[in-house]
Amino acid sequence: MRLSKQATLLVLAALIVVAPIFFPSGYYFRVGSLLFVNSLAVVGVVILTGYAGQISLGHAGFAAIGAYACALAPVHLHVHPSIAAIIGAVLSAVVAYLVGRPILRLKGYYLAVASLGFGILVSMVLANEIAITGGPDGIKVPELGLRAVLADWGLELTNAQFWYAFSGLVLLVGSWLALNLYNSPTGRALRGLHESEIAARTVGVDVAQAKLVAFMISAVYASVSGSLLALQNRLITPDIAGYMHSIEIVTMAVLGGVGSVLGAIFGASILTLLPQLLTVFQEYEQVMLGLVMMLAMIFMPRGLLPSIVGLVRGRGE
Amino acid sequence: MLSVEGLRSRYGRIEVLHGIDLSVGSGEIVTVVGANGAGKTTLLRCLSGVQPVSGGQITFRGEPLTSVPAFRRIQRGLAQSPEGRQIFTNLTVEENLRLGAFIYDDDRVGQDMQDAFAMFPILRDKRDLPAGGLSGGQQQMLAIARALMGRPSCLLLDEPSMGLAPILVAQIFDVVKNLKSLGVTVLLVEQNAFGALSIADRGYVMETGHITLSGTAEDLIADPRIREAYLGV
Question: Does this model's pTM top 0.95?
Answer without folding.
Answer: no
